[in-house]
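Troubleshooting: if your tokenizer reports a length mismatch, compare your output against this known-good record of 183 residues.
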Amino acid sequence: MRKSIVIFLILVLVSCQKKETEPVAKPAEDFLETADLYSKVYYISPELNTEDCTTYSDGCDCCDGKILFLKNGTFISNFYCIPDESYNTGTFKIENKKLILDYSYKEAVYGPSKEDYSDEEESILRLDSVNCRKVSLEIIRCKNHYVFKSETDYYGEDKKTSFQLAINQYKRDGVWELLDIKE
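Known-good structure output:
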């Protein structure tokens, strides 16, 4: 009897030990191709919800945006940072298990024409030039979703934004033409 109680206690203690669980977000082991991103919208933000694998912002300024992947290997992205909204374009590819974004030197900016703006000043769409930069994003899997990670941000598929509606908005706003985007 005493021996069975000891064995029972040992079994209880062993079964109650904390088990190591596999992380929800981990490097992608499977292969993602450039074409897998065509016609998709990704939301860019510093936070990742590992329950549903969505990216989100806690309301901070200058910390979220979106990127649309076009069928010809180009992208258009935008970031909002009061008082401006910046639009960039470039090319993308999957290489060595990384998503490589190669930004163009052109940037469309919607905002006040002067740095010392007032709230009453009318916003305009203008073309600026920026230093070209290449960004290499880690491809990770969060449950059954691909998520991309930079040093500061996560890029998660945006299920709320329609690809075609976003393109139509860029065209209506004049961004598409100003950045000379080809479909």
